[in-house]
Specification:
With 147 residues, the protein is an alpha+beta fold.
Length: 147
């Protein structure tokens, strides 16, 4: 196996690069792309530099380790603010709003209707029809207080 690595070094890196980038197209997450780019750089450099396969593996590891955090840093700095920050966190987007209880809060548990959804609420006991303010979200349950 080591002989195969030593004999086909440059082409192995180029093939690995294509495979990693192909994986990125089927499982997007912009992680395999950078590993594929690291393999591509090592493969291209291997055409001009006669280095051992061990040095190539070390260069690939170093480039991979350097590229992923750099991309995370760059993508975080250039993230555009969204017009809907609670898109996948709907319960958090309800905090601060006031609603009418659909079912009374008895034993600390009741329900409130928000648009077309019934949410479980927890808080101090209150009769049906009371106005409550959502103070926090805990998963699919909302914590409320009387208004």
């Amino acid at each position: 196996m080591v002989d195969l690595l030593a004999k086909l070094g440059t082409w192995n890196w180029l093939i690995l690069s294509v495979v990693l980038m192909a994986i990125e197209t089927f499982a997007p997450g912009v992680f395999m792309l950078w590993l594929g780019l690291a393999a591509l750089i090592v493969g291209v450099l291997s055409f001009g530099i006669a280095w051992s396969w061990q040095a190539q593996v070390i260069a690939f590891a170093a480039l991979s380790i350097a590229m992923v955090p750099l991309w995370r840093y760059y993508s975080g700095r250039n993230a555009k603010p969204t017009d809907n920050p609670f898109l996948n966190r709907r319960a958090e987007g309800l905090v601060g709003r006031v609603f009418t209880l659909e079912k009374p809060i008895v034993g600390g548990v009741g329900t409130v209707r928000v648009d077309d959804t019934v949410w479980r609420v927890s808080g101090p006991d209150a009769p049906s029809g009371s106005r409550v303010k959502i103070v926090s979200a805990d998963g699919a349950s909302l914590k409320v207080e009387a208004v």
